[in-house]
Amino acid sequence: MADADAPKTGRPSLYSEELADTICERLTQGESLRAICSDEGMPHAGTVCRWLATNDVFREQYARAREAQAELMADEMVEISDDGRNDWMERHGSEGESLGWKENGEAIRRSALRIDTRKWIAARLLPKKYGDKIAVGGSKEMDPIQTEEKSLSKNEIARRLAFVLAQGVRDADDGSE
After folding, report:
1. Pick from 157, 158, 164, 170: which is nearest to 46 by CA?
2. Averaged pLDDT, 114-139
3. Which residue among 26, 34, 117, 154 is the one 20 to 30 A from 103 at the CA level?
């Protein structure tokens, strides 16, 4: 028989406001759900996805945290693009003399990748604000094609995100990533 005062082992699986607040706060600071859930004392990502599917209050809080995260990513994109500290490298000869400066293609490509990744994520988290705008029009002889934009509620966005995250967690658990 287990001692009632013995510390619990394993990851927490029961929802609590404290855990929800911690997860959402860390999301707004730019951390990924995967990184948050890998820390000791945090629930498994699959558990968080179940909470999203079953808890309306948490789903709304999570959606707001993801929106804030997208805004943070927009700020980060500006910082990354403005930071040119590693864009150039000084070349030296065999005697240590300066041969001039050379573009650091690796640093520039890494910055571009960091920006593109953030753009992709921000466009999915806040598609109306950061998503691609697609203009659809007819020919000169025809009137422009009329399109209707479907607006999703925050709950629907969070539900879809929870589904995608759950798929990723299942794929990672299966080793198929």
Report:
1. 170
2. 82
3. 117
